[in-house]
Specification:
Radius of gyration: 53 Å
Number of helices: 3
Helix content: over 70%
Oligomer: single chain
Strand content: under 5%
Structural class: mainly alpha
Number of strands: 0
């Protein structure tokens, strides 16, 4: 029998190392594929979240924009209706200035694909809406105060006219009563003697004897 040739120990060690490296490399490649797949899934999920955030932000912006347009119409109508009908016209002028600023804001172009720009525009609209509502409230109160003052003035004028009219009537009544002539004295107001026919012959003097 021939002798069994033994492989050198160094060769066996090298072969084992090579197999180990190969297995490790294969495993690493599989892990890399898994990581790449997970990374793609994560990126897709993040993208969906970003889109959802942007959609919500755009919806909020459009809601604020529609509300501002409605408030602008209301304030414009109120400013027109209260011309000369407020106690303090400075309030009306301030409302007009706020209205002009708001009209400029709604005409500005907003990049609805930029989340930061949309959020900033929405914040500006929200702050401006609060200002417009304050101006509407102040202008309405000033208008109500003006109308109340007018009503009080008209009532005072009517009361003054009524008192003056009654005083005039009372004065005329007193004057007329004092100028009545007592014809029972037998003398007319001009000094001429008054005549009275008394068929009964009784000594009677009427309360009133006209001129004759």
């Amino acid at each position: 029998m021939g002798e069994k040739i033994q492989q050198p120990q160094g060769f066996i060690t090298q072969l084992r190392s090579t197999n180990t490296i190969h297995d490790a490399t294969k495993k690493s490649e599989e892990q890399d594929k898994t990581f790449v797949s997970l990374n793609s899934d994560i990126e897709a999920a993040i993208k969906k979240i970003e889109i959802a955030f942007l959609d919500k932000a755009v919806a909020d912006y459009n809601t604020a924009l529609d509300e501002e347009k409605t408030i602008i119409e209301s304030l414009a109508a109120l400013i027109s209706d209260t011309d000369g009908k407020v106690l303090n016209d400075a309030i009306r002028q301030e409302a007009s200035a706020a209205l002009a600023d708001a009209q400029k804001t709604i005409e500005e172009t907003v990049d609805t694909k930029n989340l930061g720009a949309v959020k900033k525009a929405t914040t500006n609209l929200t702050q401006q809406l609060a200002t417009l509502k304050e101006k509407i409230s102040a202008l309405t109160e000033s208008n109500h105060a003006y109308e109340q003052q007018q009503q009080q003035s008209e009532a005072a004028h009517a009361a003054s006219y009524k008192n003056s009219y009654q005083h005039s009537n009372n004065s005329q009544s007193a004057s007329t009563g004092s100028e009545r002539w007592d014809y029972s004295s037998g003398i007319n107001p001009d000094g001429s003697p008054s005549t009275f026919s008394n068929p009964s012959g009784h000594d009677v003097k009427p309360n009133y004897i006209p001129y004759r």
